[in-house]
Design goal:
324 residues; 17% strand; alpha/beta; three-stranded antiparallel beta sheet; 34% helix; single chain; TIM Barrel; 12 helices; eight-stranded parallel beta sheet
Length: 324
């Protein structure tokens, strides 16, 4: 199967494979490794301390001379982070969970490209008319915070009908070459993989987090609003870990009445505690019971069986697709 698509031409990358912005697990080393392998690495800047954004993007730019992206969730104002990322050299800005139009003039004036995650054909048409360069369609199979309410196939077809001339990528349930081939056959011009890259050597994911994904089977993820401290009422897909099972055993009580509501289960490097039900995912620099935190993971977890370098992941995916 041919791997060059209009998305590759737009971004000047070799493969239409994108590493999802996996929160604090998206390190400059991971992003650079993915981009250096010919795909597109993406650095999450949403929850980074504003003074750190410049340093992280500059470090990333020193690690690769290939295109890379930054991602910002627009549930909160992101003008400062996006502006700093652009000033530091980012030329691809991927947004989600809000309206990117107020940010487009800043992005475009920097010579950067805009990508946005959509869940409806109306949204896709409105945003591309405003100047968004490419779209991501997210299916409910995805890990992390999920806007999609249907499988990606059901989201994709009506978006393609409405915006046939815009690159449209698929996110959700992508872990193997077979998954990618299915997306291309359905009309996607690129794919987004998050959980697969959580299980990469360069990711900042805690070992317990990676171990849980590698050991997961079919049906071991759950869509929930459980890990809501920091972002209430935001649906997300996670692995069913000790916190999820404890809450389920208690009868799924509402926030405020959940078991261990104020437990401190981990500590950040600066000494800040991380409570049970926090939105924070477990990273390598946390101490404590990281397994009890939000183990964001998609349905693709059942097809992920190892942790290896990001370049090896990209190479394997490309080989599986081209040999199919």
């Amino acid at each position: 199967m041919e791997l060059t698509t209009s998305f590759c031409s737009l971004l000047e990358i070799k493969y239409p494979i994108v590493q999802a912005p996996i929160g604090g697990a998206s390190t400059p080393e991971l992003v650079a490794a993915v981009s250096n392998a010919g795909a597109l690495g993406t650095l999450s800047i949403t929850w980074r301390a504003i003074p750190d954004v410049t340093k992280l993007v500059q470090r990333l730019a020193r690690l690769t001379d290939r295109p890379f992206g930054v991602n910002a969730v627009l549930e909160w104002p992101q003008e400062d982070r996006i502006s700093l990322a652009l000033q530091a050299g980012a030329r691809i800005v991927w947004t989600s969970w809000g309206d990117p139009i107020p940010y487009l003039s800043r992005i475009k004036s920097s010579g950067a490209l805009s990508i946005h995650t959509v869940v409806s054909p109306d949204e896709a048409e409105r945003l591309t008319a405003a100047g968004v360069d490419a779209l991501v369609v997210q299916g409910v199979e995805a890990g992390g915070h999920v806007r999609g309410t249907m499988p990606w196939r059901e989201h994709l077809a009506p978006v393609l009908d409405r915006v046939p001339d815009v690159p449209v990528l698929v996110a959700g349930g992508m872990a193997t070459g077979r998954d990618i081939s299915a997306a291309f056959s359905a009309g996607a011009t690129g794919v987004v993989l998050g959980t697969r890259f959580v299980c990469s050597s360069e990711a900042g994911a805690a070992p317990a987090y990676q171990k849980a994904i590698v050991g997961a089977g079919e049906g071991d993820t759950v869509m929930t609003n459980l890990f809501d401290k920091g972002w209430p009422n935001s649906p997300h897909r996670v692995l069913r870990n000790s916190t999820v099972r404890m809450w389920e055993s208690a009868g799924r009580p509402e926030p405020g009445a959940r078991p261990g509501e104020h437990d401190q289960v981990a500590v950040r490097p600066d000494g800040m505690p991380v409570e049970r039900y926090s939105i924070a995912l477990p990273t390598t620099d946390m101490r404590g019971n990281t397994e009890a935190l939000a183990l964001y993971a998609g349905e693709s977890s059942a097809r992920i069986h190892d942790v290896k370098p990001a370049a090896a992941i990209v190479d394997q995916l490309v080989r599986e697709v081209t040999e199919s």
